[in-house]
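Listing S7. Sequence submitted for prediction.
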Amino acid sequence: MNQDFRKYILTFLIVLYFFNGGIEVVAEYFHLNQLIYMTKPLIPLLLMVLYYLNSARKDSLFFIIMGLSMVTNLLFIPDNPQILFYGVIAYSVHRIFLLFFILKKIKIKHFIPLVVATLPLGFIFFYLFTANELPDNTMYLILFHNILAAILGGIAISLYVMEDNKVNSLLLISTLLFLGLQLVIYIEKYYLTEVHSEWMRPLAMTINILAFYTFYKFVLAAESTHNDGSAFRSKL
């Protein structure tokens, strides 16, 4: 493919990604469900196309993660407890693959900073878990999410503190956005169930759009620096 044409295509896809994301945010605010069902799946789909065109390695796990994100996005659209339960399951599987993928792309060399960074996040998520009554069918899944979120946040913070570089900076930004997204989703679905909030879903989708694009940039940066070892190494 001609380099100038390839650059044009990539730029067009990036613009299309954020344009589609903007439409999605507006559709969430005005509760335009038909438009939401059209724009929401395009968010991970466009990132898959961008990654396919822009990555020399084309890790299959990236496509699995984005595919699971597409399923989760669709399941979180309806206000139906049963569908929400399936959405939480899909979200759990998505988070497991996401954590495994990140560990595949980076190398953890220091164990103590990881523990120090993970514990405070664990206490925060544990407090949120115990502060409100949650549905019995999702309680343990949400607890599992909180544990994964604390570990993911601890990895990103500890790596950034120990070595501030482009890869770790992008990982930290995307992780903080993912954690913010998780908090917004849980607040909307479980903590404000009796309060009508017009801005929670648009806020969640804005964070979602930024989080996944930053994650895509992290993956490209990690691959370009050949920092994709699968070893999980620790030093006291």
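Caption to Listing S7: primary sequence and predicted structure tokens for the chain studied. The longest helix spans residues 3-30. The chain has nine helices and no strands.
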